[in-house]
């Protein structure tokens, strides 16, 4: 096996410096919004004054290096991207290494790793780039041999001449290939001819994480680097009134104590940074700091007050996002009417790796390292705040120990940059677990008022009003009269094609608590309300839950999932001594159906016996990654449904660590069965769509067994 290697960005660019020592190609978008990317060599890009969106470079040893513009936070892009390119390039993954691109949207396009978008956003471009490099290498070999190109083919890093069986390795061809113009059209392989795509190949990042070579944010070290922690107000809008650092400055290792400001949407969070020569010294010194906080001028809400406010908000007229027909008139005449209110909690992101960042800010430039989901966003943000040209801001991605949306925010990177600027030295800012859990932003809690009218066993009218904080309303200059455009997120579109009269609206709840994306965003709360309510409608209509969905989800992909769930679970022959629940949601262009089986143990407590998930993500790369992401999504959904939530007292987060914010343990999680649908659809997301259907499927199963309807999360399985 060839020795795998990785290269840093500077080494990669040196390798790609147009000396003829490598074949380097990539793609760029000639016009804004144009779907077809142009593929060019590095030398052509330099001559045209453009920067490539993604790079492939093959050196004289035949080693393939890829510069990836997206982050790796466990979702598998570090494996999926090279697996796609290697398929069309006809190389073994043993020959491929991957490095992270720095943040720069003008060069690399949209780099935000979110919305399960890495594969579905770039799959065709990555396949074309690999295929283009392959065709250039074949053409180079044909020229060297003076034979027709169609007599040659590529396989396992070599070009082979069919009639003579002569072979040339890619490394021997790169110099000649680098002189060629990339073909404008290439033929991509048919799926049935794939050797790598669709196969459960081992992940490239696993060995790095096992042997300790993978670099996470807190692994980054710079010469002369100092270490900082920050004491921040436990109230989200609290200000520093005064502080006494006399004891702190006498402690070993302490170098600086400074006041810092960190932007949080349209507000500013204040704190006192303790900078020392190691993290432990800074953490110990923080305990000696005395701060008096000004907590006047804003609400000190607790959890009960928040949800009472949402309940009152539901009585108000909603901001309409989407309507069809005439809900009110149809509902009034319906033969059966069903109404329900659902409640979902605030949640912390609770990544296993707390937030951290390394910053080195000079007068005319700045460089950042860390677990970052949106490097291009952070580059633009820092350029604006530091008043430094954007090309002088370098944002480097490390591996992330989980992100779930939290590490796409710009607060922690700005804080680190401002501290570095103040102390005139590189600094690593580390958030403790307590900082990470209590400071937010959080997933917003929500309440849903659902109404529906039934006629002849079918849904004739459907209405939902949501009361929750609107994430977009926190931004500076936001239009507070705008509706939340994510109210139907997670709801299968075919429902709206089969229900003539519907209405979806929201009432933005006001609160000082910062909120933002959390795995699957609003789908994580919408899905619980919608699919729980669909189950209630099935009961009211005296229909089997799958049959009611089959009657309204008249779409080939949905019907295939329903049939698959029915087959796997033995739905039609299920026994009476166990409860089965089902839910189907659509999230980021993927459809997931999940079924849960529950039973009562001898002591009367509920037990989850079986979880079945069917994922339709269309064209896909690696089935093992898909299964791992669905399993991880279900565990996260299980926690949010049954074991943890963020609560507030006196305007402060209550849960400070995992002794209060209890995560599911291995013993809490039953075996899961994950099935992937095969079809020719375009790729959808994988990292998030498995989360929304679990909670409603579980609660529907509990109703099936016990007759008790759960409309509020989280709930205690032992108390049902």
TrEMBL record:
Listed GO MF terms: oxidoreductase activity
Residue ranges of the TM segments: 12-31
InterPro entries the record matches: Ald_Oxase/Xan_DH_a/b, AldOxase/xan_DH_MoCoBD1, AldOxase/xan_DH_MoCoBD2, AldOxase/xan_DH_Mopterin-bd_sf, N-heterocyclic_Hydroxylase, OxRdtase_Mopterin-bd_su_IorB, TAT_signal
Listed Gene3D superfamilies: Aldehyde oxidase/xanthine dehydrogenase, a/b hammerhead (3.90.1170.50), Aldehyde oxidase/xanthine dehydrogenase, molybdopterin binding domain (3.30.365.10)
Domain annotation Aldehyde oxidase/xanthine dehydrogenase a/b hammerhead: ranges: 211-297
Record flagged with keyword Membrane: yes
Alphabetized Pfam families for the sequence: MoCoBD_1 (PF02738), MoCoBD_2 (PF20256)
Superkingdom, natural source: Bacteria
Signal peptide: none
Keyword terms of this UniProt record: Membrane, Transmembrane, Transmembrane helix
SMART domains xref list: Ald_Xan_dh_C
Name the UniProt record assigns to this protein: Xanthine dehydrogenase
């Amino acid at each position: 096996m060839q020795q795998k290697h990785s290269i840093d960005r500077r080494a990669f660019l040196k390798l790609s410096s147009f000396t003829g020592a490598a074949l380097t190609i990539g793609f760029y978008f000639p016009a804004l919004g144009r779907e077809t990317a142009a593929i060019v060599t590095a030398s052509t890009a330099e001559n045209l004054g453009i920067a490539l969106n993604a790079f492939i470079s093959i050196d004289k040893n035949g080693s393939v290096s890829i510069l990836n513009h997206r982050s790796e936070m466990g979702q598998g892009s570090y494996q999926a991207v090279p697996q796609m390119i290697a398929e069309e390039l006809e190389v073994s993954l043993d020959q491929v290494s991957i490095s992270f691109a720095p943040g720069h949207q003008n060069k690399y396009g949209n780099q935000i790793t979110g919305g399960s978008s890495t594969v579905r956003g770039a799959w065709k471009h990555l396949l074309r780039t690999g295929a283009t490099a392959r065709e250039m290498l074949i053409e180079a070999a044909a020229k060297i041999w003076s034979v027709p190109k169609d007599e040659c083919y590529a396989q396992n890093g070599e070009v082979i001449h069919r009639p003579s069986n002569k072979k040339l390795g890619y490394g021997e061809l790169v110099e000649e290939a680098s002189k060629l113009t990339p073909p404008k059209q290439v033929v991509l392989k048919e799926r049935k001819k794939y050797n790598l795509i669709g196969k459960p190949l081992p992940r490239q990042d696993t060995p790095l994480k096992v042997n300790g070579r993978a670099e996470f944010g807190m692994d980054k070290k710079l010469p002369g680097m100092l270490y900082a922690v920050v004491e921040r107000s436990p109230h989200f809008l609290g200000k520093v009134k005064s502080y006494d650092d006399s004891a702190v400055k006498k402690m070993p290792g302490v170098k600086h104590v400074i006041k810092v400001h960190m932007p949080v949407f349209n507000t500013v969070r204040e704190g006192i940074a303790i900078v020392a020569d190691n993290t432990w010294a800074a953490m110990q010194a923080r305990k000696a700091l005395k701060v008096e906080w000004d907590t006047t001028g804003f609400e000190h809400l607790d959890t009960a007050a928040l949800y009472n406010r949402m309940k009152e908000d539901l009585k108000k007229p909603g901001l309409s996002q989407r309507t069809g027909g005439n809900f009110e008139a149809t509902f009034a005449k319906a033969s059966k009417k069903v109404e329900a209110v659902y409640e979902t909690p605030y949640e912390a992101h609770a990544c296993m790796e707390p937030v951290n960042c390394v910053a080195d800010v000079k007068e005319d430039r700045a460089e950042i390292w860390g677990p970052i989901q949106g490097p291009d966003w952070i580059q633009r943000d820092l350029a604006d705040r530091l008043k430094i040209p954007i090309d002088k801001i370098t944002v480097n991605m490390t591996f992330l120990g989980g992100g779930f949306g939290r590490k796409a925010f710009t607060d922690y990177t700005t804080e680190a940059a401002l501290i570095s600027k103040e102390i005139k030295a590189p600094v690593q800012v580390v958030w403790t677990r307590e900082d990470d859990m209590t400071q937010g932003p959080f997933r917003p809690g929500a309440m849903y008022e659902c109404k529906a009218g039934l006629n002849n066993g079918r849904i004739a009218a459907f209405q939902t009003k949501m009361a929750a904080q609107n994430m977009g309303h926190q931004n500076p200059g936001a239009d507070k009269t705008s509706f939340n455009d994510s109210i139907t997120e997670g709801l299968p579109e075919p429902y709206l094609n089969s229900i003539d009269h519907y209405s979806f609206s929201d009432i933005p709840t006001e609160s000082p608590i910062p909120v933002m994306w959390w795995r699957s965003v609003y789908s994580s709360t919408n899905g619980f309300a919608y699919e729980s309510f669909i189950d209630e409608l099935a009961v009211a209509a005296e229909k089997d839950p799958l049959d009611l969905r089959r009657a309204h989800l008249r779409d080939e992909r949905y019907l295939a999932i329903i049939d698959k769930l029915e087959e796997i679970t033995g739905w039609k022959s299920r026994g009476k001594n166990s409860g089965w629940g089902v839910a189907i949601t659509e999230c980021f262009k993927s459809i997931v159906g999940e079924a849960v089986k529950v039973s009562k143990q001898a002591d009367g407590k509920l037990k989850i016996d079986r979880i079945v998930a069917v994922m339709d993500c269309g064209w896909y790369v690696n089935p093992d990654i898909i299964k791992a992401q669905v399993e991880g999504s279900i565990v996260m959904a299980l926690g949010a449904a049954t074991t943890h939530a963020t609560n507030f007292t006196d305007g402060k987060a209550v849960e400070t660590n995992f002794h209060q914010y209890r995560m599911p343990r291995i013993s809490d999680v039953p075996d899961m069965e994950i099935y992937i649908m095969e079809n020719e659809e375009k790729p959808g997301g994988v990292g998030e769509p498995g989360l929304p259907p679990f909670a409603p499927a579980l609660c529907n199963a509990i109703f099936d067994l016990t007759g008790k309807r759960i409309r509020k999360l989280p709930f205690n399985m032992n108390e049902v």
